[in-house]
Design a protein that fits this description.
This protein has 397 residues and is of the alpha/beta class. The protein has a domain of 229 residues: P-loop containing nucleotide triphosphate hydrolases (Rossmann fold, 3-Layer(aba) Sandwich), CATH 3.40.50.300. The chain contains 14 helices and 10 strands. It has a 6-stranded mixed sheet, sandwiched between helices. A hairpin with a 2-residue loop joins strand 4 and strand 5. Keywords: ATP-binding, Membrane, Nucleotide-binding, Transmembrane, Transmembrane helix, Transport. InterPro entries: AAA+_ATPase, ABC_transporter-like_ATP-bd, ABC_transporter-like_CS, ABCG_transporters, P-loop_NTPase. Pfam families: ABC_tran. It comes from Cacopsylla melanoneura.
């Protein structure tokens, strides 16, 4: 006879008494989830979920930065400049890759834009032409770290339901939350492992779950630090394809990446190259080779353009960084285009100004989850983890 689950019937989780013989073929399944028949998802994985797009209607967000400088203390009285007056524009609907050699300032730029490094930063960051409000912007954006920080002792579906309760609150019923979670899991190809403990997931599944957890409230901006680190070629390609799909739904997706393969590089719609804290290129991935050729740097045939541009910025073919930086005006030319003269390559601000009023309405419409709800959800999760920790044989931990 099964030992009663102390969390059975909980109002916060859709959990019922775990069975000693899980109903699914997954040997690590640890709970039975009651799902109404109409919540089963049949939409193709290659399409953005209609519920995900309609659940939280949010206008697109463009991130513009001008003369951004970031320094860190060095020694007792000195300082080191990490970013040197860089500028740029990251638009919604695009998957942006921040490339560069080690120590170029990729992660620093990502962190400054996300609002996690502000103390020693100068310059301006504009969100739809308005100065960035860190507190408001953090409600609209999500930052996915390089390491997958997943809670142990809970299944994929339980992790998602915790996120749904914490992010959606009373704005949605329990059934609506479950429907949203099921669609996200289906879109990210996690349905088959939704009853698997997070500790038993593969590297690619953990990365997709990390992304899924941040999609619950449909954020318009997603930052990712080295999302393909530790993944094999297939998992890396699937991860970048997923990010491209999310960007095509109108989101602003920005990730730092070190050395993408040619296959991965082709999936990025916008490339921003950083070296020595300065911008060396900004534009479409397909324009990288023509841009370098305009500087008399010819990429060999059948050579990965990403590898070549990183090698050039590392000084393997001579010192061209100053020339590259001046050609792109340190990022002030937001989109390099060989068909246009430099004076016409700076981005038009009209669409950004039109979105300014939308940004005001967007930030005012977000509701915070009350402290009691947060405490209840996290306390119940902790109790569930403790219960399973003392019953390892039963749950296959």
């Amino acid at each position: 006879m099964d030992t009663p689950d102390p969390l059975a019937g909980s109002d916060q989780f859709i959990l019922h008494t775990p069975t000693s013989s899980p109903p699914s073929s997954d040997k690590y399944s640890s709970s039975t989830i009651i799902t109404p028949p109409h919540t089963q998802i049949t939409s193709p994985h290659t399409k953005i979920s209609s519920r995900l797009n309609d659940a939280v209607r949010r206008p697109p967000i463009d991130i513009e930065f001008q003369d951004l400088t970031y320094t860190v203390p060095q020694g007792r009285t000195g300082s080191k400049i990490i970013l040197r007056s860089v500028s740029g524009l990251f638009k919604s609907g695009e998957l942006t890759a921040i490339l560069g050699p080690s120590g170029a300032g990729k992660s620093t730029l990502l962190n400054v834009l996300a609002g996690y490094k502000v103390g020693n930063a100068s310059g301006s960051i504009l969100i739809n032409s308005q100065p960035q409000n860190i507190k408001q912007f953090r409600k609209l954006s999500r930052y996915i770290m390089q390491e997958d920080l997943l809670q142990p002792g809970v299944t994929v579906l339980e992790s998602m339901m915790v996120a749904a309760h914490l992010k959606l609150g009373s704005r949605h019923t329990k059934v609506q939350k479950l429907e949203t979670v099921e669609e996200i899991l289906s879109m990210l190809r996690l349905t088959k492992c939704k009853r698997t403990l997070t500790s038993r997931l593969s590297g690619g599944e953990k990365k997709r779950l990390s992304i899924a957890l941040e999609l619950v409230d449909n954020p318009p901006v997603i930052f990712l630090d080295e999302p393909t680190t530790g993944l094999d070629d297939l998992s890396s390609s699937q991860c970048v394809s997923l990010l491209s799909m999310l960007a095509s739904g109108g989101r602003t997706v920005i990730c730092s990446i070190h050395t993408p393969s040619a296959r991965l590089f082709a999936q990025f719609s916008h490339v921003y190259l950083v070296a020595e804290g300065q911008c060396m290129f900004a534009g479409l991935g397909q324009d990288v080779v023509p841009y370098l050729a305009s500087l008399n740097l010819h990429c060999p045939t059948h050579y990965n353009p990403a590898d070549f541009m990183i090698e050039v910025s590392s000084g393997e073919y001579g010192n061209f960084n100053e020339k590259m930086m001046l050609s792109i005006d340190n990022g002030r030319i937001y989109r390099w285009n060989k068909q246009l003269p430099p004076s016409q390559q700076h981005s038009s601000k009209e669409h950004l100004i039109r979105r300014a009023s939308q940004y005001d309405a967007l930030t005012k419409g977000d509701n915070d989850i009350d402290s009691w709800t947060q405490f209840s959800v996290l306390f119940l999760r902790m109790m569930l983890q403790m219960y399973r920790e003392i019953s390892p044989k039963r749950f296959g931990c």
